[in-house]
Write a structure and sequence with these properties.
alpha+beta, six-stranded antiparallel β-sheet, 3 helices, globular, 129 residues
Length: 129
């Protein structure tokens, strides 16, 4: 499922994730929401518009993949914020929730992604929704 997230509220994103992952167990859906919330917050706070969101479900690897794309090529650094203070711990949260995560840099910006292990069987590989 794809979404242009630059004008989407937090509550709308949560409803969107719940709808996209309606076949998944509650734990996976909640973790997906937390990861998506953090990655979109980072994209809005550190990246550049437009921000796009994708959620994928794979039966081959039993994972849900969350991707957030923005127009900035600067790599995120876990535990570090350019604003200092108590900020900068979101990717540490993502690291704790996700099976794995990473960043793909491309000509128009970057995609930060995270994969969660899911318990329930899904409808097949590819975009959910």
């Amino acid at each position: 499922m794809d979404l242009r997230a630059w004008r989407t509220t937090s509550q709308e994103l949560r409803r969107w994730v719940r709808a996209a992952l309606y076949r998944e167990d509650e734990d996976c859906a909640e973790k997906a929401w937390l990861v998506l919330a953090e990655l979109t917050a980072n994209a809005h706070g550190h990246g550049r518009s437009p921000v796009g969101v994708r959620v994928w479900r794979s039966t081959a690897s039993s994972t849900v993949r969350i991707e957030v794309e923005d127009a900035c090529r600067e790599l995120p650094v876990p535990g570090v914020s350019r604003w200092g203070g108590t900020r900068g711990f979101g990717l540490i949260l993502v690291d704790g929730l996700a099976h794995r995560w990473g960043v793909d840099v491309h000509s128009t910006g970057k995609t930060v992604w995270a994969e969660l292990v899911r318990r329930a069987a899904g409808a097949g590989p590819g975009p959910v929704g």
